[in-house]
Amino acid sequence: MVEQADTAFKTTGCQWLLPVSELLGFPLDQVNFLACQLFALAAAFWFRLYLSPHHANPLVRHAVATLLGIAFLIFCFGWYSAHILTVVVANYLIIVNADINNVHRYAMATAMGYLTVCQVSRAYIFNYGILSTDFSGPLMIVTQKITTLAFQLHDGTYKTSEQLTPEQKLQAIKLSPSLRSYGFSLQTAVCQKLLICLGCMLFFLIVTRNLPITFNVDPHFVAHAPFLTRLTYAFFSIQAARPKFYFAWTLADAVNNAAGYGFLGIDEHGKASWDLICNLNIVGIETATSFKTFIDNWNIRTGIWLKTVCYDRAPKHQLPLTFVLSALWHGVYPGYYFTFITAIPITIAARAIRKYIRHYFLGSRGVKMGYDILTWAATQLAICYTVMPFLLLAVDSTLVYYRSMYFHVHILSILAAIALHPKHKPRNPSAATHTLPSSSPSSTPPSPSAQCQLKVHSNNNGKLH
């Protein structure tokens, strides 16, 4: 037991906050992460006020941001931060020196290859499970950024305008007009997001810790609890696991806003929005009535990256290739592959059901409301079933869970996909539009999170990157 406690507080990062970690009962790596986020929030306000484009040149701004970022990495991950710096330097050299025709391929192979090697070492060489010193998280984000840059550079300098999709044209490197600072709306946006973070933290302390994911595969629970009890616990334990992601992404978004980044524009009502680089839409997630809606609102930046580098460019089999790339990007734990491979037939079935069945329920408001309630429950339960292996990680735990659920979502989604599979191809396949891998094409106006996806790499401090 003592050895377990010691392991819980182990980290390769700084140990200055070890007394705080022991006092609160949280792993030291989590305390270090939260301390860095709070310090970054304060530094972001200072950065916006005293190092704005009016007070400092770009070289100084980039130097300060780079040094702060390196300091945070070393504080949290110690010598493991060398992995992140290595892949950044390597890809910088590729972008500067490689043939522009192949720069995106070289960058993708280098970044994803290095990430995979690190994921393998993290999972199978050092320990099986989520390490307390998990440097792979920042490495995953860096992989997204540097590969996206390489693809955009290739599109903007090698391809002609006619060869690009509208979204690829939108991501071209170009100057944007200077935007003045909307001080009051900025402070309001930051405060709102910090309140969300506080709510998520309280929810985690009160609810999440009392609904552990591992209880879903507890031998006694699986053997003696009725199916509906197991299904209900799985649903609520997955719901309770989301706030930790909400907390991390919303706090990071607030830090960006505090530094002056993320201004989306003014809507027709004169209200300013600071959600340009948002990573989630909590309301959209919790009220999702389809796989598409959930995917569109969850981990938005990763969805954009997958769409940019894989889905829009794969000549065929876009959906399975995109899910496989997502699994590879997340790591090498078997649970990731169970999750994303399971999502393929579920997504195909959801598309087919929406296409061939949904229009029968649009005749009246009451019928549509009943349909929306039914599809909300089905979507949330399907998401619960799909992402459980993502949190369990191991093969044996995943199979225990799937057997306890009688593989019902696998069976139902495969049967639905087969039964509703179109017998004839469309006469004009070129008219088909490319969308994010999702449950169906959408005929509704884009949500705020969808609008967030249409405008990327922009801020109110100068250039589009």
Could you explain the architecture of this structure?
- The chain is mostly helical and about 475 residues long.
- The protein contains 20 helices and two strands.
- A two-stranded antiparallel sheet has the order 1-2.
- The radius of gyration is 23 Å and the shape is globular.
Secondary structure: elements and pairs:
Blueprint: H1 2-8, H2 18-24, H3 28-50, H4 58-77, H5 81-97, H6 103-126, H7 136-157, H8 166-170, H9 183-206, H10 219-224, H11 227-258, E1 265-266, E2 272-273, H12 282-286, H13 291-297, H14 300-311, H15 318-330, H16 334-356, H17 365-392, H18 395-404, H19 408-419, H20 448-454
Antiparallel strand pairs: 1-2
Question: Which features does this protein show?
Answer:
disordered N terminus, two-stranded antiparallel sheet, 465 residues, single chain, mainly alpha
Q: What is the string of SSEs from the N terminus onward?
A: HHHHHHHHHHHEEHHHHHHHHH
Sheet of most strands: 2 strands, antiparallel
Unreliable runs, pLDDT <50, ≥5 residues? Answer: 1-9, 173-182, 424-465
Number of strands: 2
Widest sheet: strand order?
Answer: 1-2
The Rg value, from CA coordinates, equals 23 Å
Shape: globular
Summary, kept brief:
The chain is built from 20 helices and two strands. It is mainly alpha-helical and 465 residues long. The radius of gyration is 23 Å and the shape is globular.
